[in-house]
Amino acid sequence: MTQTDRPVALVTGGGSGIGAAIARTLSKDYLVVVCGRRIEPLEIVAHETDGVALQADLSQPEASAAIVHRTIDRFGRLDALVLNAGIVEPAPVTDLPLDSWQRQIMVNLTSPFLTAQAALPCLAQQKGAIVGIASAAARHTGAGLSAYGVSKAGMVRLMQSIAFEMAETGVRANAVSPGWVRTEMGDMEMTALCGSPDQGYAQATQHVPQRRAAQPDEIAAVVRFLLSPAASFMTGANVEVDGGSSLVDAGMLAFNGD
Ligand code: NAD
After folding, report:
1. Which atom, in ligand 1's list, is nearest to the CA of 136?
2. 3-state DSSP of the chain
3. How do residues 56-83 score in pLDDT, each as one tens digit?
4. pLDDT digits (tens, 9 = 90+) for 6-18
């Protein structure tokens, strides 16, 4: 074991997009362990952040606890957990194959549950904190997003359940629900919807008050805050980081001057 005086953070899906931005931001405060499917991008982020890369396929039930145990075995502590890994496989309810439903629920919800469950005893020792990356899809639905939306609504409630049950130990748990963010996943969805990411983001954000998608750093900054002592009285919150889109009432769009 390499004992460290630095607090340790574990970020799932830390090799790309929002997770990589979170790892870079958290490396100012923590020794960061990034985990995900592909080792090459993880190693790039680990190198940039002076952290550690762990390859794991979180669609496999045993992998979630294993990444926690590998982190604790190596460093003897865990102070922060960011449950960020996620997938989306859009399909209408009428055509959604069972294996796709199960894969999205597994990676987006069951794995966060198993990872948190394994981490909580150590987080309680450190009075640590968890952030679960949910989505605007936790609150609003859209075509083809049943499994994704259910998994993200579940993520919000999972964070609230942990917040409630663990409050007296000092562990805090909060969710962050981004609107559109410019990442590999966002680009893929925009290309599927509109043929090109730029056109897609412009169309997707035309009714968003800020009229744009977020950059991954804008999500990472909120995660860093929620994990920090500055957020010591925040637990069980779902912070919507969405350029104001949750303010928009579909029934008022016709009168908004858009
Ligand atoms: P991304 O595709 O760049 O990142 C997803 C990460 O999850 C990748 O690093 C990937 O390796 C990891 N991952 C996926 N399946 C995995 C598995 N089986 N095992 C281990 N790791 C796995 O996309 P992103 O946009 O950065 O998404 C990060 C999170 O933010 C996701 O949970 C996503 O649902 C959420 N989110 C994204 C947006 C957006 O517009 N991009 C909006 C709201 C929420």
Report:
1. 43
2. CCCCCCCEEEEECCCCHHHHHHHHHHCCCCEEEEEECCHHHHHHHHHHHCCEEEECCCCCHHHHHHHHHHHHHHHCCCCEEEECCCCCCCCCHHHCCHHHHHHHHHHHHHHHHHHHHHHHHHHHHHCCEEEEECCHHHCCCCCCCHHHHHHHHHHHHHHHHHHHHHHHHCCEEEEEEECCECCHHHHHHHHHHHCCHHHHHHHHCCCCCCCCCECHHHHHHHHHHHHCHHHCCCCCCEEEECCCHHHCCHHHHHHCCC
3. 999 999 999 999 999 999 999 999 999 9
4. 999 999 999 999 9
pLDDT value, residue 123 = 98
Residue carrying structure tokens 């599927």: 192
Residue 151 Cβ contacting ligand 1 at under 6 Å: no
pTM, full prediction: 0.97
Q: Where are the domains of the chain?
A: 8-179+215-236, 183-213
Check if 173 has its Cβ closer than 6 Å to any atom of ligand 1.
Answer: no
CB-ligand 1 contact for 34 (6 Å cutoff)? no
Tokens of 13: 């899906």
**Cα–Cα distance, 147 to 103 (Å, whole number):** 9
Identify the CATH class of 8-179+215-236.
alpha beta
Active site residues: 148
